[in-house]
User: Which sequence fits this backbone?
């Protein structure tokens, strides 16, 4: 057996549903997969009833047969716990296991992910089915890994059942100990929301204004994350008792209201992601002029890397998207299946499993195409998978290599969850996050997302020359200490408008702004305002270069001797007011910028701070191509990905070894449409 996702190789897999097909097809399907270079299948994530068809009645024959066949054929298996879809007998007998909408109406059987994480009955039933599955199948030689559930928080990331309210109260009691402390943190004196008994507190419910106390909502998101994490751990602890020591535990996808760093720490060996870049071409909601389209998925992959530097793709797009009710997107064009596979690998994926082998002929996902169409006939997409597997033979040495970047974008869950509900916060943040991603991509500047976690120190930040922490509205003393250490040691930190005006409860601080960041940034903010539509765009000038201070303007004043005003607003009501301050702090520099970051703004910062195009002396390539870097044992690999439907001209300014063409190349190269190259720098 070949181990997955641990430096031994880069492998292909596929999602397979033995329960969707006549058993007579299994052997032929497995043979065809193996012939195409697919060595692993993921199975069983929606198949509870095939193990426990009625309460307390167990049967293992179905998956025993499949696993034995897989073993006989030499096919590896990732086996799943089936809890994403509780059976009808369970939800009918115990409706309290169901999730509910905000009005308390239950989500019924008939789709998926209709359960809640906190129902004591569901936890009991989960313990039971996971125990039965893991103890029975855990030692099977065909199995190489375990997937917990399927896509925690997919379909719905809000939970409003009675069990959730009961668990929310326990969560809050632990967090605050006393009602006085909770009332204080939530500012319940406002609008007479004061609580006198824990039983008066609920998960958010519909209100007259459709607005719920924001501090309550922030704690509610923390609570949802806590619920998912403790539910995942419940499963992982059981699987770990029975699985073979070398088998991994994962879960798939990335969704909102989940602290994934905690999930990896407590429950997983590795995270796997479900990558559907075709949404970039979706018929509903995507802008055809958007230069990023499928390239936005590199942002998602950067988020996955922030949790799991080497990861797997459990579901990689292989056909057209679509439920029978929504989400239509076209079939991957010839070359795109390869491009998207390589996009995942460029960011650190060492296992790629396509979704799915054959397109289902029934159910909600009849238009969610797999490699094969309904008939299973040989087709163009399967031929492309074969080609990918041939190409992977030349990339094996990259397994385990890490994506490397000198620019980091700092994040933390408190601010992410605050921005989910706070419009002022989300407006500045979404503009800056989009612009940072687009410009870093277009200037071929690899970057990482870096999460501020409790008990971290500045060591892990020192690998970055520049960190952007665009709108850390919520700041804590611990986090500021880490950032101060980073800057003092020589780092450059860039912060944007609205920094530091909230505490951990999401309450505004009475300090002079930017609150806890004032010392590090040498900045004072006597006044601030939204950018009014009739004054848009507000521009700032920095050494002769003009760029936008989007969405919001903090009007700045320098504070302290080491602070220097670098830029001022150029026109409108705030003309000549400082807009950009640099503070020398220890051996480094902190920048405070009074606006949100538009694309032209990000370009200026990257250039002035000297971090744009870090490989400009080795390679030049058009904006439509992505550049990524993976590194292992001192060897560096450059991935060049052409997302365009036209050829791209690139120029190698040094001799680079082309892993697909097996030779050194230099000078002008033509990359075919959707083409990919992987170059080794040096030997
Ligand atoms: C998700 C799920 C799969 C399937 C695909 C396509 O990623 O994990 O079960 O539903 O999407 O919709």
Assistant:
């Amino acid at each position: 057996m070949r181990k997955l996702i641990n430096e031994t190789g880069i492998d292909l897999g596929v999602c397979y549903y033995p329960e969707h097909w006549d058993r007579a097809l299994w052997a032929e399907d497995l043979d065809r997969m193996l012939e195409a270079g697919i060595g692993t299948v993921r199975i069983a994530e929606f198949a509870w009833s095939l193990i426990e068809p009625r309460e307390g009645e167990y049967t293992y024959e179905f998956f025993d047969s499949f696993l034995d066949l897989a073993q006989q054929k030499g096919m590896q298996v990732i086996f799943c716990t089936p809890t994403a879809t509780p059976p009808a007998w369970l939800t009918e007998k115990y409706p309290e296991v169901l999730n509910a909408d905000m009005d308390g109406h239950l989500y019924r059987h008939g789709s998926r992910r209709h359960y809640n994480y906190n129902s004591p009955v569901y936890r009991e039933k989960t313990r039971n089915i996971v125990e039965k599955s893991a103890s029975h199948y855990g030692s099977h030689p065909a199995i190489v890994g375990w997937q917990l559930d399927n896509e925690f928080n997919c379909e719905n990331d809000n939970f409003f059942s009675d069990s959730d309210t009961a668990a929310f109260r326990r969560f809050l009691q632990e967090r605050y100990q006393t009602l006085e402390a909770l009332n204080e943190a939530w500012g319940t004196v406002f609008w007479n929301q004061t609580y006198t008994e824990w039983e008066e507190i609920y998960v958010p419910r519909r209100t007259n204004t459709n607005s719920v106390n924001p501090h309550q909502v922030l704690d509610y998101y923390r609570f949802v994350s806590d619920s998912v994490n403790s539910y995942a751990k419940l499963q992982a602890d059981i699987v770990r008792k029975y699985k073979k020591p070398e088998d991994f535990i994962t879960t798939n996808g990335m969704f909102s209201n989940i602290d994934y760093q905690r999930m990896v720490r407590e429950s997983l060996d590795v995270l796997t992601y479900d990558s559907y870049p075709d949404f970039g071409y979706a018929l509903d909601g995507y802008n055809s002029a958007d230069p990023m389209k499928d390239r936005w998925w590199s942002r998602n992959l950067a988020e996955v890397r922030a949790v799991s530097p080497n990861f797997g793709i459990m579901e990689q797009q292989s056909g057209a998207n679509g439920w029978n009710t929504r989400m239509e997107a076209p079939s991957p064009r010839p070359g795109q299946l390869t491009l998207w596979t390589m996009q995942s690998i460029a960011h650190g994926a060492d296992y790629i499993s396509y979704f799915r082998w054959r397109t289902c002929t029934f159910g909600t996902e009849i238009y969610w195409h797999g490699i094969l169409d309904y008939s299973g006939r040989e087709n163009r997409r399967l031929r492309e998978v074969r080609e990918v597997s041939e190409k992977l033979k030349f990339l094996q040495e990259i397994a385990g290599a890490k994506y490397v970047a000198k620019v980091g974008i700092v994040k933390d869950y408190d601010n992410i969850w605050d921005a989910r509900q706070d419009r002022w916060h989300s407006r500045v943040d979404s503009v800056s996050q989009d612009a940072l991603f687009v410009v870093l991509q277009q200037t071929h500047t690899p970057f990482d997302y870096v999460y501020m976690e409790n008990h971290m120190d500045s060591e892990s930040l020192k690998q970055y020359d520049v960190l952007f922490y665009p709108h850390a509205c919520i700041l804590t003393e611990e986090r500021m200490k880490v950032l101060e250490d980073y800057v003092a040691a020589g780092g450059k930190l860039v912060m944007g408008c609205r920094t530091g005006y909230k505490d951990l409860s999401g309450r505004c601080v009475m300090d002079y702004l930017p609150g806890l960041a004032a010392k590090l940034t040498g900045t004072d903010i006597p006044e601030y305002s939204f950018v009014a539509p009739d004054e848009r765009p507000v521009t700032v000038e920095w050494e002769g270069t003009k760029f936008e201070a989007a969405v919001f303007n903090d009007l700045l004043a320098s504070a302290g001797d080491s602070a220097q005003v670098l830029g001022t607003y150029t026109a409108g009501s705030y003309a000549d007011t400082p807009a950009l301050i640099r503070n020398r702090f220890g051996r480094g520099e902190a920048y405070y910028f009074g606006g949100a970051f538009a694309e032209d703004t990000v370009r200026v910062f990257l250039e002035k701070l000297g971090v744009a195009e870090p490989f400009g002396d080795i390679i030049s390539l058009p904006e439509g191509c992505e550049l990524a870097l993976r590194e292992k044992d001192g060897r560096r690999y450059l991935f060049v990905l052409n997302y365009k439907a036209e050829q791209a001209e690139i120029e190698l300014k040094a001799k680079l070894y082309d892993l697909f063409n097996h030779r050194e190349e230099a000078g002008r190269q033509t990359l075919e449409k959707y083409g990919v190259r992987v170059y080794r720098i040096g030997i």
